[in-house]
Every structure is written in structure tokens, then in C-alpha cells.
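Design job #97: recover the sequence.
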């Protein structure tokens, strides 16, 4: 779920050679040339550059096409077209134009940097690394190449290599704030927020107007606090000139910071920036209908589409009964969710049409398609109702909002009744774990104190392949974690919801398992690496009927928080 991913991420993308190329192309196109075709090409190219600088990327693209048609031999015209297409979100077409420019002008070093950056944004990290290494060989004295190479190594979890590249470059060019900033982003992925902040502040000492470093300082403070200082850093970033893409990322991060501070009306309104096409995690909705912007819903046909991760679909469903009430009996509510959620949502919303969506990809962006939905009046990404229906804590109903299968819940209760004491469901991590995400979750090894609490039967809610970890807990601690035979916790979410409802309490990382348990009304104790924005400025998750958050005093310090969690569980079991 998005809360797992700490989606207000560090602004850790690379730096292209846009400014250098624009200046050079403008200079070259101003020279007198005898060839009429080249003169016309230069005229269109200069106009394209001026449009690009005004952020009118559509016009810049059209003028760049005119330039290529006037002189198909002009590599700079194709380069300009590639930059314009990239800013329009047409990444695949942009890369094709970069390649055309490179074939015409292989000596243009800026192309290697910009082409690598485009490949990086598409997730083609090995390709990006190749181009950045070529650029570094051609321009060893330019910090952008080393910056981008360190960044792409970081994003492929080669942290030692990334640190070595950044440190070596800093030794050569200690006056370059860009390099200090990137070294900070690497350390953030290693959970060393304090040292990262030192590097961000050094970058800002060298360049107080470095918007990206202000953003990243805010991101680090978002993890460690104080949040008001994080907000100040984001505001400082937004007060400076920056790339439009960077401003969108900072606006998104700022919105999540406001939500985390409990400033819900302002925060959820700002959170809508996640739909902007230049936001790195934006999703396209392939439906022939406008996105809902708060219009009256009575009597309308509304298609609500689940967004982000599975846990988000469940958590954001907190608003669906209110949406249904706003539409009323003369309208139609259609809800598209993950296939695995259809039985649960259909039971919970008997008057709505529930179906699935299909995932696709376009220009390295997620696309969600709902072919069964027809042509609704509005499309509503599931989280968009928050800005209108959840503007204060009082707007959260504090009750179950999804209905588990009563028969399966009874069967699971009967099965668990054979085990003594409190029946506690546990989930310790997300199924999707990589080097960047690992810092947000505890390993099963950290659960020793909790699993030793007497008077408790622990029930497995960990979806995915968890057998080795369950066996490890048995070998290390003698802990018996009960598993329901035949229940696929990953794919049978209706069964997982019923099992959660049969438990007395669920202790979980902020995952889909926790969201399911909370949605069906089971009390949930969330175990987080640090405070997270879905707490909405509280010590709980207001989305659910009953919840509590346990997080360490220092980010990711599981050794500190686990004894506290075990003590609280011991008190509950004794009571």
C-alpha cells in the first residue's frame, strides 16, 4: 500500500543536460547558414526552444517536428523533439527521437545524459547506466554524469557502488551541491536519515536555492520529525524556481506531510496532485469520462476505481458508503477493484455494481481499464473522495465498513477455539520486499519478545511465501504460528478477511493484511518503522474501528519497540 512505500519519496531522480543543450542549440540556430532548408529548420528550432522555456511542451513538440521536416539531417531538431515529448509524458516516443538524434550527432555528449535520464525514468536502469558511463567518460569534469550514475546504482540497490561513485566525484568536485544531495539520497535508502541531513545541509550551504535539496531535507524530516520543520523545507523548495516535475513531487510530498500533521482538508486537497501526468507514480484511467472534481453526485452514474496498492484500495474504501449515499437511489455506483476483492466488496455494497479493472502500461505509466463500466458521468479514483468526505477526524465513522463472509468467519472461529488464550493474527512484512523497502518492515527475527508472550495463540496472516520464516520462528524461539490449512492468504482475500474477523486482535506491519482486518472491524495494532501519514496526526489509524500504532523512538529501531509491544500484549492477554 502507499503507506508502506512512504510515497512522499526523496527527489532522487537525475539531472539532464537540458539547459546546456538549449543554450547551445539556440546559439547554433542563430548562426547564418547558406542552405535554405537549414535556415528554415533553425527558425523552427528557435521558436521551439522559446516555447519549451515557457513550459508549452505541446507547441515545442509541433515546432520541433517542423524543424525535422525542414532538415531531416539536424540532430538538434530531433533532440529538441525528444525533450518536448518527454515532458508531455510520451517517454517511448521520446527515446526513439533521442536515438534518431544520436545517430545523426554521436558527438553530442548532452544526448547521452538526456537519453540515459529518459531510460531511467522508464525503469530501464541497465540502459540508463550504460549511457551515464559513456557520458562520464566523455565529460569527466561534469558532475551531472557522476550524479546520475550514482543515482541509478542506488536504484538498483548497489549501494556500496553508488556511495563510491558519489564520494569519488565529491573528492574531485567538492563544490558541487548536486553530488552532496545525491549522497544524501543513498544514505536515506540505508535508513541513515541523520547523516543524509548533514549532506543535504552541505548542498544547501553551497547553493541555498537548490530546491531539490530542500525537498529531500523535508523528506528526511518527514521520517524523523519534527513535521513542522519538514513542512518548512517543502515550502522553501516550492518558493524556488524548479523543474515542473520537481514542483509536482514536492507538492505531493507536502500534501502527505499536512495529512500526517492532521491538517486533513488542506492535505487531502493537495493530495490530488498525484494524478498529474508528470507525477512519477501517476496512473492513467482509460475511461471515456471526466475525473470527478467534487460535483454533485445525486442521480449520477459514478465509476469508482481502486488506486495504488491493494492496501490502499481497502483503506480508501472507508468512504464508499458515503459515496453511495451521495449518489442516492436514482443514481448508479460502479466500483472497480482488484479481482480478489470482488466478493468482499459485493457483499459490503449490495446495491453497487462491483467488477474488476485491468492493468496495462503506457510510456512506463500504469493504466487502469474497466471495459465493463460503459460511459459513466464521472470517474472517481478511490482516494479522491477523501478531499470532500474526510476533511476532519470527525468525518471518519469509526466502524467496520467491509463485511466478511459470516459462514467462513464462524468456521474459522470454531477452528481457532481449539487453541488456548487470545487468538492474535500476525503479519510482519509486505510481500514486495527489496533493498529500498526493507527498512519499513521488521524481520521475523525481531519478534522474539512478542512471540514469547504467554496466553496467546498466534495465527498466520502473512501472505505470500512465509513458510521459511514461520519455520525459523519455531527453530529460534519455539514459537508455534497457527496456519489455516488450504487458505491462500494471497489470493483468497475473502477468506483472509474472514480469518481476520475471527481473531481477537491483529498485529501487523502497515500492509493489506492489516487493512483487511481493520476494515472488517477487528482491532489492529500497527507496527511501523516510524510515524506514517495514514495516522492522520494521531496515535492510531482513524480509518478503522479500533487501532493502535507502535513505532520506535528512532526510525526502524525494532529492538526498542518490540519489548513495548510485547508488554502491551502481555497486559491484554492477562486481562
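Job complete. Output follows.
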Amino acid at each position: 500500500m502507499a503507506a508502506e512505500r512512504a510515497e512522499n519519496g526523496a527527489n532522487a531522480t537525475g539531472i539532464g543536460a537540458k539547459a546546456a543543450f538549449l543554450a547551445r542549440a539556440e546559439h547554433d540556430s542563430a548562426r547564418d547558414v547558406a542552405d535554405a532548408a537549414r535556415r528554415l529548420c533553425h527558425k523552427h528550432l528557435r521558436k521551439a526552444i522559446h516555447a519549451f522555456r515557457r513550459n508549452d511542451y505541446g507547441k515545442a513538440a509541433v515546432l520541433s517536428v517542423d524543424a525535422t521536416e525542414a532538415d531531416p539531417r539536424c540532430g538538434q531538431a530531433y533532440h529538441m523533439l525528444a525533450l518536448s515529448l518527454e515532458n508531455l509524458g510520451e517517454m517511448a516516443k521520446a527515446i526513439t527521437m533521442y536515438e534518431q538524434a544520436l545517430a545523426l550527432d554521436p558527438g553530442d555528449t548532452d544526448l547521452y545524459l538526456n537519453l540515459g535520464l529518459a531510460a531511467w525514468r522508464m525503469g530501464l536502469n541497465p540502459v540508463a547506466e550504460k549511457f551515464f558511463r559513456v557520458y562520464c567518460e566523455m565529460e569527466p569534469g561534469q558532475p551531472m554524469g557522476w550524479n546520475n550514475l550514482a543515482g541509478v546504482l542506488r536504484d538498483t540497490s548497489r549501494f556500496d557502488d553508488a556511495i563510491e561513485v558519489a564520494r569519488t566525484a565529491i573528492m574531485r568536485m567538492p563544490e558541487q551541491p548536486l553530488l552532496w544531495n545525491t549522497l544524501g539520497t543513498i544514505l536515506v535508502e540505508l535508513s541513515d536519515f541523520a547523516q543524509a541531513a548533514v549532506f543535504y545541509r552541505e548542498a544547501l550551504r553551497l547553493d541555498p536555492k537548490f530546491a531539490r535539496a530542500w525537498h529531500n531535507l523535508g523528506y528526511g524530516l518527514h521520517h524523523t520529525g519534527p513535521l513542522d520543520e519538514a513542512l518548512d523545507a517543502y515550502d522553501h523548495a516550492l518558493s524556488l524556481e524548479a523543474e515542473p516535475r520537481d514542483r509536482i513531487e514536492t507538492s505531493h510530498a507536502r500534501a502527505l506531510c499536512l495529512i500526517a500533521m492532521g491538517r486533513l482538508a488542506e492535505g487531502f486537497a493537495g493530495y490530488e496532485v498525484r494524478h498529474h501526468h508528470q507525477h512519477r507514480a501517476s496512473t492513467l484511467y482509460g475511461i471515456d469520462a471526466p475525473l470527478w472534481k467534487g460535483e454533485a453526485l445525486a442521480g449520477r452514474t459514478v465509476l469508482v476505481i481502486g488506486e495504488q496498492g491493494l492496501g490502499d484500495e481497502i483503506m480508501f474504501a472507508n468512504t464508499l458508503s458515503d459515496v453511495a449515499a451521495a449518489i442516492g437511489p436514482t443514481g448508479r455506483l460502479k466500483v472497480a477493484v482488484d479481482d480478489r476483492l470482488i466478493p468482499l466488496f459485493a457483499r459490503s455494497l449490495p446495491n453497487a455494481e462491483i467488477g474488476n479493472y485491468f492493468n496495462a502500461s503506457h510510456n512506463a505509466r500504469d493504466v487502469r481499464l474497466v471495459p465493463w463500466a460503459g460511459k459513466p458521468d464521472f470517474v472517481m479514483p478511490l482516494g479522491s473522495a477523501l478531499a470532500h468526505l474526510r476533511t476532519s477526524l470527525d468525518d471518519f465513522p469509526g466502524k467496520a465498513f467491509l463485511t466478511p463472509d459470516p459462514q467462513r468467519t464462524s468456521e474459522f472461529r470454531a477452528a481457532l477455539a481449539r487453541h488456548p488464550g487470545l487468538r492474535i493474527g500476525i503479519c510482519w512484512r509486505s510481500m514486495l520486499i527489496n533493498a529500498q523497502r526493507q527498512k519499513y518492515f521488521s524481520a521475523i527475527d525481531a519478534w522474539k519478545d512478542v512471540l514469547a508472550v504467554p496466553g496467546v495463540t498466534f495465527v498466520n496472516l502473512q501472505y505470500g511465501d512465509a513458510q521459511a520464516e514461520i519455520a525459523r520462528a519455531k527453530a529460534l524461539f519455539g514459537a508455534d504460528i497457527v496456519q489455516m490449512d488450504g487458505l491462500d492468504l494471497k489470493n483468497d482475500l475473502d477468506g483472509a478477511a474472514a480469518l481476520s474477523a475471527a481473531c481477537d486482535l491483529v498485529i501487523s506491519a502497515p500492509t493489506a493484511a492489516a487493512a483487511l482486518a481493520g476494515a472488517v472491524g477487528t482491532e489492529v495494532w500497527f507496527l511501523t518503522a516510524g510515524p506514517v501519514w495514514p495516522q492522520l496526526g494521531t496515535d492510531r489509524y482513524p480509518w478503522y474501528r479500533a487501532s493502535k500504532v507502535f513505532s520506535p523512538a528512532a526510525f526502524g529501531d525494532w529492538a526498542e519497540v518490540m519489548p513495548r509491544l510485547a508488554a502491551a500484549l502481555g497486559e491484554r492477554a492477562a486481562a
